[in-house]
Design goal:
single chain, 113 residues, mainly beta, six-stranded mixed β-sheet, four-stranded antiparallel β-sheet
Length: 113
């Protein structure tokens, strides 16, 4: 079982950047695809980016070209580099496997206009 803890959120102005980190524990991490999800107030949680164990990436159309997901398997960490942030990116961001069961607390990202 993989356990994941998110960090790196904060308050940033529109056009700014943030880098989120997802620290994983569990021996199966390197074999799992990992996704970054977000949930804005009053909206359903959505998958914004994912990365396979081999490094293949996928992005939601809303973040394509602005966000970049990467992973450091020896350090059991997945990153989400977020550039050109927009107010509509404001949400709580979570990392999880692509078959999530339990959720962590996430990390808050707030983008001011």
């Amino acid at each position: 079982q993989v356990q994941l803890v998110e960090s790196g959120g904060g308050l940033v102005q529109a056009g700014g950047s943030l880098r989120l980190s997802c620290a994983a524990s569990g021996s199966t991490f390197v074999f799992r695809s990992i996704g970054w999800y977000r949930q804005a107030p009053g909206k359903v949680r959505e998958l914004v980016a994912s990365i396979s164990s081999g490094g293949r990436t996928n992005y939601a159309d809303s973040v394509k070209g602005r966000f970049s997901i990467s992973r450091d398997n020896p350090k059991n960490t997945v990153f989400l580099q977020m550039n050109s942030l927009k107010p509509e990116d404001t949400a709580v961001y979570f990392c999880n496997t692509l078959t999530p069961t339990n959720w962590g607390q996430g990390t808050q990202v707030t983008v001011s206009s």
